[in-house]
Amino acid sequence: MTKEKIISVQNQWAEGIIQMGKLSNDRSSLEIFTSNFLDEMYDFENNVLFKPTKAAVEQFRNTKNSAFSYFIAGDEKECKEDTGFALSKWSEVIFDNSNIIITQDIAVAMGNYTFCNDESSIKVEYSFVYKTYGDKIKIILHHSSLPFQI
Questions:
Q1: How many other β-carbons are positioned within 10 Å of the β-carbon of residue 147?
Q2: Cα–Cα distance between 1 and 22 in angstroms, integer?
Q3: Phi, psi (rounded to 5 degrees) for 58
Q4: Residues 100, 107: contact at Cβ < 8 Å?
Q5: By C-alpha distance, which of 9, 14, 50, 36 is closest to 132?
Q6: Is the pTM of this model over 0.70?
């Protein structure tokens, strides 16, 4: 595992979020894509700790279904507060890593990522932990929050 590989996984994650917005008018394709995205990017087969940015009532989304609900909501959403974060049709997601620490098969990245679309941008603080499984790198911890407001 290298910093370059982690940055590549971050770019893949960002492209997935952007693609969800692009598919927002085709619910069937969106659901298939999002399910595949979660399988590819996260290790829900084992354990994932996921605390998304815009979650207040049900803060932690440690199952694939609750992560799915957070990203794209829908009629069968798992968490009532979800509106579909990825449906904002983000055109760009920019990672600004404060640092990436690599120890054997685990990498920890922390920094800010900014989500941009035609109407707005939002800067979010994040910490991700990645684990290698053979030639795959998957997220096992995803924590993000809005910066503290004075």
A1: 10
A2: 31
A3: -110, 85
A4: yes
A5: 9
A6: yes
Domain range summary for the chain, segments of one domain joined by +? 3-145
What are the helix (H) ranges across the chain?
3-22, 27-41, 64-72
d(CA 39, CA 21): 18
Q: Considering the domain 3-145 in this protein, what is its CATH number?
A: 3.10.450.50
Half-sphere exposure in the Cβ direction for 77 (13 Å, CA) = 16
Q: What is the pLDDT of residues 125-141, one digit of tens each?
A: 999 999 999 899 999 99
Instruction: Give me the helix-helix angle, 3-22 and 64-72, nearest 10°.
Output: 60
Q: Which of 70, 16, 14, 5 lies closest to 39, judged by CA?
A: 16
Residue 75 has phi, psi (to 5 degrees) of -65, -35
| Residue 139 near residue 129, CB atoms below 8 Å | yes
The length of the chain, given as a count of residues: 150
Query: How do beta strands 121-133 and 136-145 pair?
Result: antiparallel
